[in-house]
Every structure is written in C-alpha cells, then in structure tokens.
Amino acid sequence: MLVTLYGKSDCPLCDKAEALLKELAAEFDITLRKVDITQDLQLLRRYRNIIPVIEVAGTTLHAPIDPRELREAIEAASR
Fold it and tell me: What is the β-pairing status of strands 2-7 and 31-36?
C-alpha cells in the first residue's frame, strides 16, 4: 500500500513520523512516498503549519501524529 508523507527537511516531527512508518513497514506492506512541501507552493500553503501529514488510502493524519491512529489507518487500509 502506498503511504505518502508530506514534510520538509529540518523537521523533527517529520523525522519522527518517518521512523514510525519504517517501523510499521516491517509489519505491513508499505511503500513510503516522501514529498517535500517546499518544492510545491500549493503544498506549502496547504500543509506548512500542520506537517507532518500522512495519507493512507484516503485517510489523512497531521501533526501531531498519534502512533495508534496511524496503525489503525494502516490496518484498515490493508484489509
């Protein structure tokens, strides 16, 4: 399943979200797509104050990322 992480460099919360996703990838078939919001003005405007943002099969989570909610979203998407 494709999981998209919207963030930017020098973002500790984004790094933490990525680490969480890598942990979950050991359990679930996850393909992680990282998107740097600073490379797209529309994404920067939309997400600048709420990164990291994670999209999983139609579910969108934003900062602060709750590990339990993220797991639930991935579990639901893998059914």
Answer: parallel
What does the alpha-carbon distance between residue 63 and residue 39 come to, in Å, rounded to a whole number?
20
Burial label for 10, CB within 10 Å (0-12, 13-18, 19+), is: exposed
Give me the phi and psi of 76, to 5 degrees please.
-65, -40
The C-alpha atoms of residue 77 and residue 64 are separated, in whole angstroms, by: 21
Whole-model pTM: value is 0.95
Specify the long-range contacts of residues 44-49, CB closer than 8 Å, at least 24 apart.
Answer: 47/6
Render each residue's pLDDT in the chain as its tens digit; 79 residues: 999 999 999 999 999 999 999 999 999 999 999 999 999 999 999 999 999 999 999 999 999 999 999 999 999 999 8
Cα gap 32→49, rounded to integer Å: 22
